[in-house]
Amino acid sequence: MYTYKIFDSVTKECEEIFNTKEVKLDSTFFQHIEYIKEITKYNKSNLKIVVIYHDNLILTILPLEIKKYFFIKVLQWIGTKYSDYCNPILSKSLQSKINKKYFLVTWDLILNDIKNDFDLVFLNNQLALINDQPNPFVDYFKTFKFSTVYNISFDGDFNDYREKIKIKNKNHAYEIHRTMIKYEKLKETSKNLKIVIQDSDHDLIDFNKIAEEKKGQLKKKKINNKLDYNFVRSFKNLIQLKKIKFYVISLNIENKPLSRCFGFVFNDTFYYYIPIVLPTSFGNYKPGKILIIQLIKWCIKNNIKRFDFGLGGEKYKKYFSNKEISLHRYFEAFSLKGSIIYFLMLLIFKIKKLWL
Prior knowledge:
The chain has 356 residues and is α+β, with helices and mostly antiparallel strands. It has helices at residues 12-18, 33-41, 100-114, 136-139, 158-168, 170-189, 207-220, 229-241, 287-301, 315-320, 336-355, and strands at 3-7, 25-26, 46-54, 57-69, 72-77, 89-91, 120-127, 129-130, 133-134, 144-153, 193-199, 246-253, 256-266, 269-277, 306-308, 323-333.
């Protein structure tokens, strides 16, 4: 059997567990302890960070919280509102030793310990694979697949990347070829075309400006966004801490940006987090796609192993990717109120699926 410990706050002991070097833990950026500390600082919730052990070694960490939505209390992953991916943190050395039976029994015991505090379990935005490791909350539970995440896995130089795209899909390879032609034409149009890279170690990154530009772009498309005051404040603090390296990479003409991306590198992965295409007269050249090509080259040059396009199934992401990972959600009722919401959610998700 496994043992476990539940933390109701990020104590010194809890933080040390997240930062343990004895057992290498595998996660995405959105389970980084600094991100968790910032994202929970301004959002009221009841933390339930669970550490599961196997023979006194960390098997997995479950960064959970109980959050109240009107009259319903929901057990969810920490930062569900803001995080692209919500997952457990897995031990690289012990992940392959997870026993399904023991894991499910332990999960039931954990829920029993805290079940009086919530009405519904809703585990959203779960990757089927976490850095190529199977996610037990997808493998062992009846989940609903609702989206696909696009990644690029790098193995070789830029020509190797293009060749693999060509093998996968000739139409996608042609799209990359067209983008590179547009880049050459744009260079002919202006000799002052540059890729400008800012990083949080050396440059002042104005995250307010990034957020406002993105909100303006989404507003024109009538798309809701998560870039509220608390989200912006959390990322400004993370940038200032300098514990994670953030980047703003821009495609500029005459020192004016055509497109840019706010991103970061974590666990050998570049997160293409907030891309922005600015309104200019050069829109026909597809500056957003040109920037992606330059970002791919930059990742290869800097030995970054993976490029993560984040949430959203836009076609252009599929063109450039060579790997797809399914995204899942799991929900279960634990009270009468929870059951009512459960069936409403089930109905809503089924209706949405019909429209996709």
